[in-house]
Amino acid sequence: MNELIQLNLSNLTGRKYWRSLNQLADTPEFRQWVEREFPEGASELLDSGSRRTLLKLMAAGFGLAGLTACRRPVEKILPLSKGVEGYVHGRPLHYATAVQACGAATGLIVECNDGRPTKVEGNPRHPFSLGATNAFQQAMILDLYDPDRARQVQKQGVKSGWAQFESWWLEAASKLGDGAGLRILSPRTASPSLDALKAEIAKKYPNSVWVEYDAVNFDRVVEGARLAFGQPLMPQYRFDQADVVVALDCDFLGLDTMTAQPVKQFAARRRPEEGRELNRLYAVEPNFTVTGAMADHRLRARASDIAAVALALARELNVSGAELKVLDGAGGRQKKFLAAVAKDLLAHKGRSLVLAGPRQPAEVHALVALINQALGNLGQTVSYTRPPFAPADSLAAVRQLAGDLAAGRVTVLFALGGNPVYSLPADHNWAELFRKTAAVALAFDENETWKAALWQLPEAHPFEAWGDVRALDGTASIQQPQIQPLFGGRSALEIAALIAGRPQRRGYDIVRSYWTSQWGADAEKKWQQALYEGVIEGTRFPAVEVKADAARVLAAIQPALKAAPAGIETVFYPSWHTFDGRFANNAWMQETPDPMTKLVWDNAALLSPATARRLGVQDGDVLELSAGGRQIHCPAMVLPGHADDSISLQLGFGRAACGRVGRGVGHRVEGLRAEANFWFGPAEVRRTGAKYKLVTTQEHHTLIEPITGLKRNNIVEEFTVEEYRRRAEHGKHEPHPPTDLFPEFDYSKGYQWGMAIDLNACIGCNACMVACTAENNIPVVGKEQVGKGREMHWIRLDRYFSGEEDDPQAVMQPMACVQCEKAPCESVCPVAATAHSPEGINEMAYNRCVGTRYCLNNCPYKVRRFNFLNWNKDVPEIRKMVFNPDVTVRMRGVMEKCNYCVQRIEEKRSQAKAEGRRPIRDGEVLTACQQVCPADAIVFGNINDPESRVAKLKRQARDYAVLEELNTKPRTTYLARLRNPNPELV
Amino acid sequence: MADLAIDPRMELNPPLVQGGMTYSDVTDKISSIVEGKAPKRWYIGMAVAVPLALLLFACLGYLVATGIGVWGNNSPVGWGWDITNFVWWIGIGHAGTLISAILFLFRQKWRTSINRAAEAMTLFAVACAAIYPLFHTGRPWRAAYWLFPLPNEYLHMWQNFRSPLMWDVFAVSTYGTVSALFWFVGLIPDLATLRDRATTPLRKKIYGLLSLGWRGSATQWRHYELAYLLLAGLSTPLVLSVHSIVSFDFATSLLPGWHTTIFPPYFVAGAVFSGFAMVVTLMTLARWIYGLENLITMKHLENMCKVMLATGMIVGFAYGTEFFIAWYSANQYERFIFLNRAFGPYWWAYWSMIACNVVAPQFFWFQRFRTSIPAMFILSIFINIGMWFERFVIIATSLHRDFLPSSWGYFRPTWVDIGTYVGTIGLFLTLFLLFLRFLPAIAISEVKGVLHQQVSAGQAAPVHGGSH
User: Do the Cβ atoms of B271 and B263 come closer than 8 Å?
Assistant: First the structure.
């Protein structure tokens, strides 16, 4: 059958899902197979049926039937927690692995149920995961089972095979000579094995060029270090050591780092319970990012003004004796802000940290390094190591590549992964350039690059292929496959081995042989340990002793300042949905709202209320943006707190060649993104007069009621550190014991579950939403249905603005079912489908629910989700493999909601019982949202145990229940948001 | 008639049956509707009503096959037109029992010529209403029997008797059953009349079966009268209880705008208000179709207009009270929800309600409007619309903006919402037209009872009971 199922995407129009693989495989062979009534070979039985033939066929059939079940890799992989020997059917196995994005790896642990990966968790041993992941890593599991993945080796769209490709390459390679015509283009990778292969290729083809390019990269960070210290280096931050953090256009809590580490470190300094002083965060940024939402003070500034801000700050700090000529166009507020920041930094020498985002030019990074040096932060809160990947100016490299392609100097071009035709700078028509040569595209889906290539090769998912990756600090991990390639894809590593002409072509051999050669005698033991732990010991890069050259930096910054013109500018940001386009076909990500705009299934040109008023623009007005002779169209969206005269655009939308989920979703802004304005640059704006429907999960409602103007003050509690100190002296505020109509439940024995969510740690990164989606088989409903208010997320992130519209503060509030003790939903359900468990959880019996929706109406938190339609109706067969077998897939017409991951509680309960009927330990049961949370904002446990973490948190003075006066007695309570304002700026 | 007209008492209290009808005139007139050919107007009515009823079944089929998502319901507005229509129909069903039972107990003779049709209207309205609690559920194939306390092997569990929806099931089914019984018992003597007059064997058989062997003997009349009285007594508390319990669906929740103690009396008054409006709408139509001017007189209609005026004032007062309490309670949510009703995104629905329910009935202060058929027809339509808006305003505006501003939303109906609603009107009209055609639309025996009053120049002591 497998051969028959060859999805030809070009035959499909619109977003239509097929019902079964059979229907999909509408190939002539399949039709013939259907028509024949009996499969090949069967009719032979009828003709000359000898018993011997029959027995032979039966034996072969049994053998093959067994083979079809073989999905587990034949190579030996060792699990993190349990040996394969202990495999119990129905019990998941966990394997350590690591994935990479933009040259930075994160260690993961993947849960596999009966040989199919179903859930991703962070690897606690990995320094950049520390047990957490971001939303994208959670959603990767869905990509694995994407029915729109590239499945077939093709030559110009005609079905071919790996063998044909290999023989083509051998012939092409024989004509390459010194490799002057060979170009390899890949995303930025930090992989020791691949580095070894690159060296081999460079040796075999000395004139070949390997270009690395990512639409979102750290080039400017590394180049900034080169400018400051004379060598390309990667800064390593210690946010947990910093009392004062100043982020200059750096969304380090959000999309400017692809790892959980900064969030873990930062959040550790936002918990007054742990006895450490709260840190203070200043953010200067054009867009309103989640980092800005966490900031105690925030200054809006255009991206091109950040250099001036950094320089002004440097002057305030007396960074150097060099004379600074600051173009000080800054207003009074800006001056006051910077003066206060400088004073605060000086008061925290060696315990402060200034950092700039990857959008900022190298000069700003160099200046920031200089500031940190002046503050004595080097070696304290920031150190420098060599970068995990080969540093290079990728924009210059792709410019060179375009020139070579245009001039016909390239005979063979390998595009190993990524989607360069879509994401490369708009200076060139890359699809056309690709067609000028023999382009070989290794692509995960049939994307723009795939379409432009001569040879089209399906790429293996990181969960299907062996590899090794380095984290930003150099820590190496083995990328261990969880499943055999579903569609026969290969990894970039394997293609690189083919290019290098290695005899060994399998990823396992490549990686294994590299590390064996590194380790020598002890290799086997170390290999097993590396697989088991998910990190390779001793691979972390040591910090480099550095000293910045102030004169050089200050000389370099002056031209950067002059380049900042007035007028509107556009800034490019990665998207919370697709990142740079790679998650465009991932429905989980498309439906998870942007943390600030709450936009789903779209991107938008974000602009400030003042700029929108000036331009006469409202939400959904389609804008024409032009720069450098290029135009794009994008609908506008007003974001309170955005910098004036600046427009933020999110990458990764408007994919023309994409699977059915992401095709044509949003607007492609890459068309405006040339080398000159790669991150930001001036642009012309024009209203087209057209309207476009943008869908959000939450309007821009503040906590201020629109008609009465009153503030709803029992939803989010917020204190300054000073206010909280005074409050804490009085102890926790206990509400009046109200009278209850219904009797109390008895929890004197056993467990009583509860949760505490720390609003002061939560950054609103969406990881919990996607983790919950993956864990609980939550369906995706699409843009239209979200527009009708039918999204299904069990946990959502409510974002509230406060203060003035132009410069508000924001607070994020994760909101799932709070498991009321006196649940309004329970008393109104006529069939008792939602009922209290003996451990206090408000449980849903899906098969009892008739769907009156009364519980939804009566839920003051509106966390119940109703299956208005059969969201699981057209789920492709392959996509069903992602379902968590421990959780029911709900049918239409029933209500669903968070149940504290009751399946995880039960799993641990049975484990505890098996281990001698011991009680479940505190911290043993982790809900999916809690486990993934990089900020550790969610704590779950047994509140009957006064020593449990959750019980302790609930005794804090800042613990409060949302809508407490309704007397619903929620089991999920919140820890108030604290702000640590600088007294000089209040 | 002329000498009657000069009697001053007659002017104050005109006879309930006009045109000098005799006992046999009454029997002939009412029976002829059933026995004769249907007038063209009846066919016109059916041509409108039947396709609409078919539309209802099409919409319900599509709904069950596809899911509640074909309606506009969403989160936070879990109930939209479905429960709006349910409450609206249940409310309409109130006038029937009120006229039959309460007016009967209070010996209000003028009820006799309208009570039969009003009762039928009640039954059909309850039937239309009962569609919604079943079909608004996500899984009606389960709700159809899980909502009743039937012993079951499947889950070994009972219903949740704390749920107002459960009370609703009992309240509505009891009301439906008692109304049907009451209506049928009232029909028995008239069915016997039709049996006796029947000319074809089939008619004889059917009406014979339905009249349960009625012979009109004095003993039978004695039992009959007692049974009727008892049923009237049984129905009377139901008039108050059904809509009170329907209002508990809202009043016992914790949603601002729903959670209010004023709801039971307010809902009952509203139900009577809308019920009478629907009776006026239908009676003016029936009068027009069959020429029943002598039986359904201006006095009947004027009385009903007065009831509408009174209940309309109660409803208007309730609207005011809600606002006063919202302010007086100093409850933030309560205050917001009422201001939001009047000035929020649903302002148009709120002010439509006020215009139809508070302003429109004020015309009934004037006799000119109370005695003008076109005026009362138009005003009754307004009240029907207004009472629909009342339920929509209560349901949608309370739900769409509740406690957490993050969850606020908006409800927009789909074509299926509209089709289902219009379809129930079609079903209602179809059933009503069939009733007019095949059953005596006016209680023959009871009208004969009040005819006696007319014969004795309107001074006879009120005596119930029929001539035979």
Answer: no
Give the mean pLDDT of A931-949: 93
Q: Does B417 touch chain A (CB under 8 A)?
A: no
Give the burial class of A393: count Cβ atoms within 10 A of its Cβ; 0-12 exposed, 13-18 middle, 19 or more buried.
middle
Give the CA diameter of chain A: 99
Residue contact B336–A707, C-beta within 8 A: yes
**A329: Cβ–Cβ under 8 A, 6 or more apart, which residues?**
A308
Burial label for B265, CB within 10 Å (0-12, 13-18, 19+), is middle
Q: At what angle do helices B164-197 and B218-251 cross, to 10 degrees?
A: 150
Give the HSE-up count for residue A62: Cα atoms under 13 Å, Cβ half-sphere: 5
| Inter-chain touch B138–A966, beta carbons under 8 Å | no
The whole-model pTM stands at 0.87
Most B-contacting residue of A695, A778, A788, A894 (CB-CB within 10 A), to test interface: A788
Identity of the residue in B66, B160, B165 whose CB atom sits nearest the CB atom of A869: B66
| Chain A residue with the nearest C-alpha to that of B405 | A701
pLDDT tens readout for residues A28-60:
554 554 444 444 444 444 444 456 666 666 666
β pairing state of A695-696 and A599-600 = antiparallel
Q: Residue A655 gets which letter from DSSP?
A: B
Residues 139-198 of B with CB under 8 A from A: 139-140, 142-143, 146-147, 155, 157-160, 162-166, 169
Calculate the dihedral angle through the C-alpha atoms of A818, A819, A820, A825, rounding to the nearest 10 degrees.
100
Pairwise CA distance, residues A809 & A715, whole Å: 16
pLDDT of residue A326 exceeding 80: no
Contacts of A810 (CB under 8 A, 6+ apart): A288, A292, A293, A596, A641, A799, A800, A801, A802
Residue with tokens 């906590």: A703
> How many Å separate Cα A828 from the centre of its chain?
39
- The structure tokens listed for A503 are 């005899």
Catalogue all structural domains in chain A, each as residue range(s) with its CATH number: 2-68 (no CATH), 154-217+391-533 (3.40.50.740), 220-385 (3.40.228.10), 565-696 (2.40.40.20), 819-860+864-897 (3.30.70.20)
CB B69 to CB A790 under 8 A?
yes
Distances (CA, A) of A892 to A849, A856, A875, B66: 11, 15, 14, 9
Q: What is the mean pLDDT of residues A166-190?
A: 90
Q: Contact at 8 Å (CB) between B213 and B188?
A: no
Chain B partners within 8 Å of A597 (Cβ): none
- The answer to whether the CB of A139 falls within 8 A of the CB of A579 is no
Packing angle of the helix pair A219-229, A362-374 (nearest 10 deg):
50
Nearest Cα neighbor of A134 from A937, A934, A936, A939 is A934
DSSP character string of B147-184: TS----SSS-----TT-HHHHHHHHHHHHHHHHHHHHH
pLDDT for residue B239: 82
Which residues, 6+ apart, have CB-to-CB distance to A895 below 8 Å? A833, A834, A844, A849, A851, A853, A855, A856, A864, A865, A866, A867, B138
A940 within 8 A of A753, measured Cβ to Cβ:
yes
ipTM value for the complex = 0.90
Q: Give me the residue from B162, B336, B406 closest to A827, CB to CB.
A: B162
* pLDDT tens digits along A595-633: 999 999 999 999 999 999 999 999 999 999 999 899 999
Record: contact A858-B146, CB cut-off 8 A: no
Which amino acid is residue A358, in one-letter code? P
Phi, psi at B285, each rounded to 5°: -70, -45
A422-452 confidence digits (pLDDT tens)? 999 999 999 999 998 999 999 999 999 999 9
